[in-house]
Amino acid sequence: MNHFAEWLSTTFLSVFIQNHNAWVIPTIQSIHIVGIGVVLGSVLMMSLRILGWAGMDQTLRQTANRFGPWLTGALLLMLVTGILMVIGEPVRELITISFWVKMFLVAVATVIAAMFQSRLRKHEQEWEETLVHRKSIQWVTILTFLIWACIIVLGRLIAYDHVWGSWSPATKA
Amino acid sequence: MDIAALLTSLQASGLATRIRDSLFLFPLIESTHVFGLAMVFGTIAIIDLRLLGVASSQRSFQRMASDILKWTWAAFALTAVTGALMFITNPVVYYHNFYFRTKMVLLVLAGLNMGVFELTAGRTVHRWENAPSAPSVGKVVAVLSIVIWISVIFMGRMIGFTTTRAATVTPKTNGVDFDDFLGAPSNGGAPTTPPHQK
Prior knowledge:
Chain A is mainly α. Chain A is built from 9 helices and no strands. By secondary structure, chain B is mostly helical. Chain B has one domain. The termini of chain B are far apart. The interface between A and B is large, with 44 and 48 residues.
C-alpha cells in the first residue's frame, strides 16, 4: 500500500491537485461535505419514517422514492470527490486506519441501504403493514444511522490518525 | 472588558487548556461538528427543495417543517457548542481569520434570510402549503439558503487550512498565509506528529 500510495502521488492528476492545494483540496472537501449532508439528511428521513417519528403522512414506498435517488446521487458524488482526495493526498489517506475502517463502514451502510430498497420493492405490503413495526427492524434502523455518524467522524479523523496511537500505521511511517 | 482581553481570557481558561492539551478532544469535537453540520445542511436542503418544488412537492409544507426543523435546530445547537469549544482553544487566531469572520457573517445572513421568510411567505403559508412550490419570495429565500449554507461549509473548511492549531501561532491580521496552505493543510494535528507527511 505504501508503494501504491507513493506511485499514485507521482501521477499527473495528483501532482496537479498537490500544486493547487490552496483551493482545490478545500473545494473538493467542501463538495464532499455537502454530499454527506444530503446522505445524512436522506438517511435521517428514512430512519425517522421507519421509527414512526416523522413523515407519517407518507408511505414507506413514497419516502423511499423521495430519498432513495438523492441518497444514490450523493453517494456517487462522494465517491468521485473521495477518489479525487485520495489521488490528491494518497499518502495521507491510504496509510491511515481511520480511512480503512471508514471504507468498511461505507460498504456495510451501502449494502444495508441497497438491501432495504430491494426488499421494500419485493415485499411492499408486508413492509408497510408489519415489518416497519418490528423491533429488530427498528434497531437495525438506529444502528444504520449510527454507522453513518461513525463514517462522518472517521472521515474527519483521517486528518488526525494519531488518535489511534500505535494502531495507526501513519504513526509508524 | 475589551475584545482582546476577552479572547485572551477565553484562551487561558481551564476548558480551553484541557482541550488543547488532549490528543483526542479537539479531533473528536471537530468530528462531532462535521456530523452536526451535515445534519443541519441535509435537513435544511430538504425544506429548501420543497419550497422550490424540486422534491416532496406533493407534501404539506407545514407538516414537513414540523417534522424536520426540530432536528435542524438540535443539530445546529450541536454545531454551535462544538464550534464554540474549537474557538476557545485558539480564539485570537480564529477571531482574526478572514474565513472565520466571513463564516460568521454568512451565519448572520442565514438567520436574516430565515427572518425574511417568516415575515413574507411564512405569513401566508396556509394559502400555499399544499401547492407544489412556495411563492416567488419563498423560492428566492430557498436558493439563498442553499447558497449561504454551502458557502458556510466552504468557509469552515478554509478556516482549517488557514490556521494552525493551539498556542504556538501568532495572530494573523491579513487572513491568508500561503505558507500555511502548503505547510499545514489540515486543521492541525497533534503538536508532535504533523498530519501530513509528504
